[in-house]
Amino acid sequence: MVITMDLKTLGWALIIIGLLVLIVFGIVFMRHLIITIQHTNRILADAEKISAIAAERSEQLDGLVGDVSASVGQVTEMIKGNQSIVSALTSIVNAVTSLKNLVTSKKEK
Fold first, then answer.
1. N or C, which end of the chain has less CB nearby within 10 Å?
2. C-beta of residue 90 within 8 angstroms of C-beta of residue 67
3. Phi, psi of 3 (to 5 degrees)
């Protein structure tokens, strides 16, 4: 039994085998790409949550800094003699209360 093949048939066979291998590699590549995209979506969702938390904390901190700044300004005016001692003590108590509320709200979360 003798099989004869010409170069044209051999070339087509090699091209078809190469295309089949390329299709298998393409399928494997797409499976890995889908898994990678799913992981990336999870990471981006976590980053969005973290950004929201950071924005909320920075707003709280901004309010706290404003309160402390106002209290320090009032204490400074008191030292200069422009404010009564009772009002200055009230400002200090308000600042301490703001700090306490921020710390307790941070612990609750």
1. N
2. no
3. -110, 130
What is the per-residue pLDDT across 18-39, written as a single tens digit (0 to 9) for each? 999 999 999 999 999 999 999 9
- Are 75 and 92 contacting, i.e. CB atoms less than 8 angstroms apart? yes
Radius of gyration of the chain (CA): 36
Mean pLDDT of 46-69: 84
Task: Name the token pair of 12.
Answer: 């087509």
Beta carbons within 8 Å of 99's beta carbon, 6+ residues apart: 64, 68
- Which residues have CB under 8 Å from 77's CB, separation 6+? 83
Q: Which two tokens stand for residue 64?
A: 């706290």
Q: Is 60 exposed, middle or buried (0-12, 13-18, 19+ CB in 10 A)?
A: middle
Is residue 91 within 8 Å of 74, Cβ to Cβ? yes
